[in-house]
Design goal:
CATH architecture of one domain in chain A: 3-Layer(aba) Sandwich
Strand order of the largest sheet of chain A: 6-7-8-3-9-10
Order of helices and strands of chain A: EEEHEEHEHHHEHEHEEHHH
Order of helices and strands of chain B: HHHHHHHHHHHHHHHHHHHHH
Helix content of chain A: 25-40%
CATH superfamily of one domain in chain A: P-loop containing nucleotide triphosphate hydrolases
Structural class of chain B: mainly alpha
Number of helices of chain A: 10
Oligomer: heterodimer
Largest sheet of chain A: 6 strands, mixed
Structural class of chain A: alpha/beta
Mean pLDDT of chain A: 87
Low-confidence stretches of chain A: none
Distance between the termini of chain B: 43 Å
């Protein structure tokens, strides 16, 4: 379970995240949407312990990320938006390193797990090459593998589809749905509305640091007082960017 | 020309912004660098002027010596320029990030070539200009030349700088078509390290201290006159030297001819370089996208050895150490610094071997122990400089990948202490080698040997604590080059603190060591008061060392725990 309580972040006078409160249950796949600069990445960075909140709390299965960071991070898997990795390690060495950070015993079980992940993410042929030679998509897949090597109970994902080819994107969708079925709580930020619509049970929309909408597709429709089936018009309406639609229409003409 | 300037605009504007909006510590850094540069200029100018004035006073061959010196210097500059242009052009033509932008836009190859050539020229030549200008000015001042000397000098220097830039670029264009760019850069980087070390050894083993001994001076003059400089008439350094010759000698050289040769060669080299660029650049660029493989550090033997050496540590500490070890030995810019370090140690120890202790009016045994004592401080300074290069950047080198550690269950405390222990062990070995070998060469008493070995052992703890801790308080995750990390405000602060720390240890130990040595020399027993003073002093050293480890490490842990990443 992932819980956010009255989460706030200020940078000087700029209020990046305001009073965000959320609860994601085990087995739930939650979509986190918002326009650029809305506070999505800041929220995520606070959730995984990369940034200290100005106020509020983040709990992962009851463990406070700020007060009990080791216990909280032991059950967390994180996939950032930009795949920065250790360039001078091979893919295999990187997975071994992450496994060590999580204290996984070295042995057949661990070796088997890493081999399975490399195969699943189509990286076994590249496992002994330095990360610096990987393409963006391969790095992204390596980070995905590293995020689940220790079988986390909570997965926090920032833009998982960036740089992935259609095969990779399909793989990720299947993986997340499977993980959710096994009880993993997944918090996913994305710009691809179709992905959120297709995969997520609930969706939260953040704008200017505030959570402006939260619920299932049906609940969002009610909130936006819209009969639209698709998420895109709802999103534009809720974030006050409906004018963009007419602009796009004009441009097409 | 205008279009070339367009391509250079981002660099020019970025530089302008950097000057307009200096970052934290930039002013301090600028002040230090400017002071150093001014001091260097004044010193070089003064030294060269003295030498040249002396040459002028030597009849018959004094002017010949001055022109020989100039031609040797220009030849050295030309070799350095050629080398640095090859290295620099590899970056500007093949490895720079902004090439993707330019190559995907309708930019003509001519414009790209000339813009990149200008960038290479600027990167490689400013250092030579900085080193060379006080020398050229000293020549002007010593020979009381007319204004036309400065005009000819400027007119000769511009093509003299362009020729190696165009030639260096041409070399790298060909090299990258044979090897991938990253490999070529590694090879050239290593060659440049060897080049620097050879120069260092050459200068040191020539024993310049003999210059102060007037008895050997006649031999030196003979040496210089006998020295036959390879002044080939086909080298641009020869043309530049010949164009300046009429100002130092009563020699009617054809100044205009040599200036013409310089300019026509520079022009021809640029045009020829452009042709080659058009013909083979894109193939080389495509090749430069290839990456290298890691071999040695993937072998089971190396892994097994490392595994054995790190067995006493916990799993996480070992994982981090293994990652750092592999990253270090797979990065040529990192591990090749070890070669420089070895050269430094050899020259350091060589200095002790050639110390003329027997010529001093002081008793040899006293001098041996005095130097040994001061050597503790000196070795401490060497260790803190090495630590500035390798230990201070330890946290910053995590770079943008630091998110991996921060979002993992590894506590910041374990992370930083792991960096501490893995940095401490190699530095302890280095420090003890420096102290034990130099003391052996000095033939000091067993007391001094034990005292300095034990002191440097603990001082190294303090230096590493300061390095790791301060490196975590002032991390620079955005800086890719490890050598640049220590050049920031935090690095300067660390160096200052480190110097103060070593100075305090030396001061605290000075009195007790003097008292103990004097008692031994005069064969007298120490009073209770003296023993108490000695114990308090050594206790002070122990407390100081403890503080140098604990305080910065605590500050570092606090910073990486609370910082927003």
């Amino acid at each position: 379970m992932i819980e956010l309580w009255q989460l706030n972040k200020k940078f000087g006078n700029f209020h990046a995240v305001r009073d965000v409160t959320l609860k994601i249950l085990p087995g739930e796949l939650f979509g986190f949407l918002g326009p650029n600069g809305a506070g999505k990445t800041t929220t995520i960075r606070m959730m995984v312990g990369l940034m200290k909140p100005t106020s509020g709390r983040v709990l992962l299965y009851g463990k406070d990320v700020l007060r009990e960071p080791e216990e909280a991070k032991a059950i967390l898997g994180f996939i950032p938006d930009r795949p920065y990795l250790y360039e001078k390690l091979t893919g295999l060495e990187f997975l071994e390193f992450v496994a060590d950070l999580h204290g996984l015993d070295s042995g057949n079980h661990r070796r088997k797990r890493i081999a399975e992940l490399l195969e699943f993410f189509d990286l076994e042929g590249w496992s002994r090459e330095l990360v610096e030679s990987y393409s963006h998509g391969m790095r992204q897949r390596l980070i995905l593998a590293a995020a689940i090597v220790h079988r986390p109970k909570a997965l926090i994902v920032d833009e998982p589809m960036v740089g992935l080819d259609p095969k990779g994107a399909r793989l990720v969708k299947r993986l997340f749905l499977d993980l959710a079925k096994t009880g993993v709580a997944i918090f996913m930020s994305t710009h691809i509305l179709e992905v959120a619509e297709e995969m997520c049970q609930r969706i939260g929309i953040i704008n200017e640091g505030r959570m402006i909408a939260l619920g299932t597709m049906q609940e969002l429709r009610e909130k936006a007082q819209s009969a639209d089936d698709k998420l895109e018009p709802l999103f534009l309406k809720l974030t006050g960017e409906e004018g963009i639609r007419s602009l796009v229409e004009d441009f097409r003409r | 020309m205008e279009t070339c300037l367009t391509l250079l605009q981002p660099k020019i504007i970025s530089l302008k912004h950097r000057l307009e909006r200096p970052g934290r510590g930039s002013l301090f850094k600028l002040l230090i660098l400017t002071s150093l540069a001014v001091a260097f200029w004044v010193l070089t100018f003064w030294a060269f002027q003295r030498v040249l004035l002396y040459f002028r006073s030597v009849e018959l061959f004094g002017d010949l010596l001055a022109s020989k010196l100039m031609s040797m210097m220009l030849l050295t500059f030309f070799s350095i320029l050629l080398f640095s242009n090859i290295i620099s052009s590899l970056s500007t033509f093949f490895l720079a990030e902004d090439l993707n932008l330019f190559l995907s836009r309708p930019v003509s190859p001519d414009r790209l070539y000339y813009a990149r050539l200008a960038e290479t020229l600027t990167h490689s030549s400013w250092m030579v200009l900085l080193f060379g200008l006080p020398v050229f000015l000293a020549y002007g001042s010593a020979y009381r030349v007319s204004f036309s000397y400065y005009l000819i000098l400027t007119w000769a220097l511009i093509p003299f700088l362009i020729i190696p830039a165009a030639l260096g670029t041409l070399f790298s264009l060909i090299l990258v078509n044979i090897f991938p760019a990253r490999r070529t850069k590694d090879i050239l980087f290593l060659l440049s390290i060897f080049f620097a070390i050879s120069l260092y050894f050459l200068l040191r083993f020539l024993q310049p201290e003999r210059l102060v001994n007037p008895e050997s001076f006649a031999g030196l003059v003979e040496y210089i006159t006998a020295l036959n400089t390879p002044s080939s008439p086909f080298l641009p350094s020869f043309w530049a030297s010949e164009s300046l010759l009429p100002f130092y000698q009563d020699h009617q050289a054809n100044c205009g001819f040599f200036i013409g040769l310089l300019w026509s060669t520079a022009g021809a080299m640029c045009v020829f370089g452009n042709w080659v660029f058009r013909a083979i650049y894109f193939d080389g660029w495509t090749k430069s996208q290839e990456a290298r493989r890691a071999r040695l550090t993937q072998t089971p033997l190396v892994n097994g050895l490392f595994d054995f050496c790190t067995r006493p540590f916990s799993l996480r500490v070992r994982a981090l150490a293994l990652k750092d070890f592999k990253s270090f030995f797979r990065d040529t810019t990192q591990w090749s610094q070890l070669i420089l370090l070895t050269a430094l140690v050899v020259v350091y120890l060589y200095n002790f071997r050639v110390l003329p202790l027997d010529k001093s009016p002081l008793p040899t045994s006293f001098l041996q122990n005095l130097i040994s004592f001061l050597n503790m401080g000196l070795a401490g300074f060497v260790i803190s400089a090495v630590s500035g290069r390798f230990v201070f950047p330890a946290v910053s080198l995590e770079g943008f990948s630091f998110w991996i550690i921060r979002s993992s269950p590894m506590p910041p405390r374990s992370f930083l202490w792991s960096k501490f222990w893995t940095s401490l062990i190699p530095l302890l070995i280095l420090a003890e080698i420096l102290i034990i070998l130099s003391n052996t060469l000095l033939q000091v008493t067993p007391f001094m040997m034990v005292l300095s070995s034990v002191t440097i052992f603990f001082v190294t703890f303090g230096i590493v604590g300061l390095g790791v801790g301060m490196g975590a308080v002032y991390p620079r995750f955005k800086v890719e080059n490890a050598a640049q990390i220590v050049s920031g405000f935090g690095g300067a602060f660390y160096m200052i603190l480190s110097m103060i720390f070593i100075g305090m240890v030396v001061i605290l130990e000075a009195w007790p060591v003097h008292t103990l040595l004097m008692a031994e020399l005069h064969r007298r027993a120490l009073s209770y008061f003296e023993w108490a003073g000695i114990i308090i002093s050594f206790l002070g050293v122990a407390i100081l060392n403890g503080m140098a480890v604990i305080i910065p490490m605590r500050m570092g842990i606090r910073n990486i725990t609370e910082m927003d990443f």
